[in-house]
Write a structure and sequence with these properties.
The structure is a single chain. Helix content is 15%, strand content 31%. The protein is an alpha+beta fold. It has a four-stranded antiparallel beta sheet with strand order 1-28-27-26. Strands 2-3-4-5 form a four-stranded antiparallel beta sheet, with no helix packed on it. Strand 14 and strand 15 form a beta hairpin. GO terms for molecular function: dynein heavy chain binding; dynein light chain binding.
Length: 549
């Protein structure tokens, strides 16, 4: 207790001297330094998922079979080096390096001696026609004929309508076809169509035409305008003429004849555009019908086609050498089934008639047709010459599109030639200057509905045949044979005749054919049928001359 009082007095003395003492923080536990490393025991949690998975795992291994290797080398049996080296000839090298000596005096003398002979031969070559029509072809020759497109309108096919006509427009990119009937049926009341396809259009659908025009009567023929790509004329079974503008989708009809006293009384089988001589920027439309009349129509502002001129083919006014045996007026009108104008004489044209004759006619004829008809304009008799007939009606004529100036004393040139075909299965090659054919080719034992001359080859033409298992489009090349076709193209089955053909004037490798099945096939011809060979025009003239002899 005495010691406790001593220490208490000391603390009171220090507090009086120094003030209250600062509390001292507790020190480390006994036996430890100020800072030391201390390892605490860890906590361990067992994984039930890992243990369960490890129980299901099986140890597996994969090893491929033993790999076999081998080494091989190739070594030639023997080797030999060879080299060639010419020996340098110093004298020869010096002679080569020396300047060539020219005898200019002798050269001048030689040229003066041969000058006249050389100029004479050059003039002969200049006047020669040995290479007329020859063109260098740097591309490979294509000998195949391909079917590019098979076009049809399903609704027309469902109604068993036939393709009666095809026509290419002025650009050669659009093709039009008309639907109707050329066999038995109620033609006068049957609805038909005119369809167009643009073959250059991206995404062309052969079963969906770009334009479909509903027509209340069968359309028997079509013709695109020669310079306006959107205008197309059609002849109807009712005798009317209609002109459509394919750029107008709502109401494409822009002109029509209507049913008047001037309208044809029979179906119109041919239409043809003519230049209007009185109005430079206008055209006239010519129509031919089995009523024997060939009428010329002009455009009126009110949408009408008015009669401007007309002709009548009358049996009594056909030249006596082959006058048709018809007497009464009711039978005297000769039914016109086809027509083709000469490309080189705007007044001359050829018609085919139901009596089997081909007739050369002229729009410049002034003889009145007898007897007078009830027409708003006087009709004239156009026939100048009749040709030896077929054994049945003539269904198609085609004038030669090739022209070459010839002396009138020489044999007929190709510009005077035309083709005709008919129900006798023959193709006749005629000169417009004589009545007998240059040759008659028996193509088929059945009807021939169409013949067309190639626009680029003077010796090539196409005809539609109905003979054999398949209805065929026949291509003839008179340079190869004048008796058999060069190529036969399968168009349709035997009970679907091919009614119409048309070459593309802008793209001559394209040929369109329409048939009774309601389809239009576009054929791509090979270069053999589109590239004119050397002296081909002379060959055709020689063929015509030999036939005349």
């Amino acid at each position: 207790s005495r010691i406790a009082r001593f220490h208490g007095n000391r603390r009171r003395w220090r507090w009086a001297r120094d003030g209250p003492a600062t509390p001292t923080p507790p020190g480390p536990p006994p036996g430890l330094a100020m800072f030391t490393d201390l390892a605490a025991p860890g906590a361990d949690v067992q994984s039930l998922w890992r243990s369960a998975r490890s129980e299901r795992c099986e140890a597996k291994s994969c090893q491929t079979g033993r790999i076999s290797t081998a080494e091989a080398e190739t070594q030639s049996y023997t080797g030999r080096d060879a080299a060639v080296q010419t020996e340098q000839d110093k004298d020869g090298l010096q002679d080569f390096q020396q300047e060539v000596q020219v005898d200019y005096t002798g050269l001048l003398s030689f040229l003066q001696r041969v000058e006249d002979a050389v100029i004479k031969e050059l003039n002969k070559n200049w006047e020669s026609r040995a290479f007329d029509g020859f063109e260098v072809n740097w591309t490979d020759q294509n000998e195949t004929v391909l079917c590019l497109h098979v076009l049809s309108y399903p609704e027309a096919r469902d109604r068993n309508l036939q393709v009666t006509s095809v026509s290419w427009n002025a650009t050669g990119s659009v093709i039009a076809c008309s639907y109707g009937r050329l066999d038995d049926g109620d033609w006068s009341t049957e609805k038909s169509y005119v369809c167009t396809w643009n073959l250059d259009r991206r995404g062309l659908n052969p079963q969906r035409p770009d334009l479909v025009v509903d027509v209340p009567s069968s359309v028997m023929c079509l013709a695109f305008h020669p310079s306006q790509p959107s205008l197309i004329a059609g002849g109807l079974f009712s005798g009317e003429l209609v002109v459509w503008d394919t750029s107008r989708t709502e109401d494409p009809v822009i002109w029509r004849t209507g049913m008047t006293d001037d309208t044809h009384t029979d179906p119109v089988y041919q239409v043809h555009w003519l230049p209007d001589t009185k109005h430079r920027h206008h055209s006239q439309l010519l129509s031919a019908s089995t009523d024997g009349k060939i009428l010329v129509w002009r455009e009126e502002r009110d949408g009408r086609l008015a009669l401007a001129d007309g002709f009548a083919v009358v049996a009594q006014q056909i030249p006596r050498s082959t006058r048709l045996k018809k007497l009464a007026w009711a039978e005297s009108a000769v039914g016109v089934t086809s027509l083709s104008f000469s490309p080189f004489n705007p007044h001359v044209f050829v018609v085919g008639v139901e009596g089997g004759y081909s007739l050369r006619c002229s729009t410049a004829a002034q003889t009145p047709a007898l007897p007078p008809r009830g027409s708003s304009v006087p009709l004239r008799a156009p026939v100048e010459l009749s040709f030896s007939p077929h054994a049945g009606p003539v269904y198609s004529v085609s004038c030669s599109p090739f022209h070459r100036q010839r002396c009138f004393l020489l044999p007929p040139s190709p510009r005077n030639l035309f083709l005709s075909c008919g129900t006798d299965g023959q193709v006749h090659l005629h000169s417009m200057l004589q009545t007998q054919p240059l040759f008659a080719l028996q193509v088929s034992q059945k009807y021939l509905f169409c013949v067309r001359w190639s626009p680029v080859r003077p010796l090539v033409f196409a005809a539609a045949s109905g003979e054999g298992k398949y209805l065929q489009v026949l291509l003839f090349d008179l340079a190869r044979s004048a008796r058999k076709p060069a190529v036969s193209l399968k168009q349709a089955l035997s009970h679907f005749p091919v009614y119409c053909l048309e070459f593309n004037g802008k793209h001559p490798q394209l040929l369109a054919a329409g048939d009774a099945a309601g389809t239009v096939k576009v054929w791509q011809l090979s270069s053999d049928f589109t590239e004119q060979g050397p002296r081909e025009m002379n060959h055709l003239e020689q063929l015509a001359s030999e036939s005349m002899d």
